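INTERNAL AUDIT FORM
Audit reference: QA-55
Scope: verify that the stored structure record matches its stored sequence.
Auditor: D.O.
Record contents follow.
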Amino acid sequence: MKPEVPRIAILLPLSGPSAKVGRDLLNAAQLALFHFADQRFELLPRDTRGTPEGAADAAARAIGDGASLILGPLLSGSVEAAAPAARAAGINVIAFTTDRTVAGGGVFTMGFLPGQEVARIVAFARQRGVRRLAVLAPDSTYGLRVVEQVRQSAEAPGLFLTDIAYYDPLATDFAPVVRSLADYDARRRNLLDQVEALRARDDEVAAAALKRLENLQTLGDVPFDALLIAEGGKRLQAIAALLPYYDLDPKKVRMLGTGQWDTPGLGAEPALVGGWFAAPSPAARADFVEQYRAAYGAPPHRLATLAYDATALAAVLAREDGGFQPEKITAAQGFAGRDGIFRFLPTGIAERGLSVLQVRERGTAVIADAPSNFSAPPVR
């Protein structure tokens, strides 16, 4: 009699507007099968169509087909829609979303959480001498989560949160918020007042002082020595281009970022060069990208590692008795993945070991390695 083969469903948007992302994640899952699975493992791809309704249908079909674990969906609304059927069937879900609010009750989230990235980079900056911190963030769920974590991190002795500036997440003009954060008008007025007073004196000492001021835009420093910018891509570059324009000097203020900075080309914007951000170690991911490119002829979507790691984990757990039970998924020692070590907390969210990277003109460099193991027990 043929032994029972564990069936693992993977729910992805294989049609609809997110089909390209879904296809990349499915390719990554199949690559993990090649590397980790044996003959006693069957992957069941199911199309969510990128909608909550499609995710609910896909989950129902997967359960009907005998799935013992569900990987995905990708989007938080789809996870919410798929979760009730999975819970009713007693099947755990390892989803790819970054929305921690859907975790728990048998749902585990693989996504990269901004709170962990912020905690890592703020702690590192404090170790390197940063004492006064400001935040520039979109007025969105993401931005509010970043600010919440900065507030918590700023409770550490010797670190002060001096300024918080929000902007419309749909904005295209960031000049008003950068100008205000830099206190540009007051500092500009200080300079003009000083110049006027020196000119009125008309002596050699005043003339020498005027010579020193002639290349300045403003007078006086901003009340922070580091600025965390919770943005990425072209919007981040647009913000960064305004910093020196409003005399927010990157030589005096250290720029800090989240995982949204983990994209190529940031060094093309001079104000970001030298900035620090927290992200998974790039080394293991680089190997994955090359393997993926060799197999499929193109680079993968940034989130493809989530599907790879989830499928690899499922293949490993499938060889253990009770491998898909919560106590196995939440093993305290965690797992090694293509984005470094990770483990699931009892709350359902993934804790990750993160590196600190510095932006260089031609790429990024790791300046603090990610941990190689979890030395502390998970938070209960």
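Auditor finding: record pair retrieved intact. DSSP finds twelve helices and 15 strands in the chain.
Action required: none
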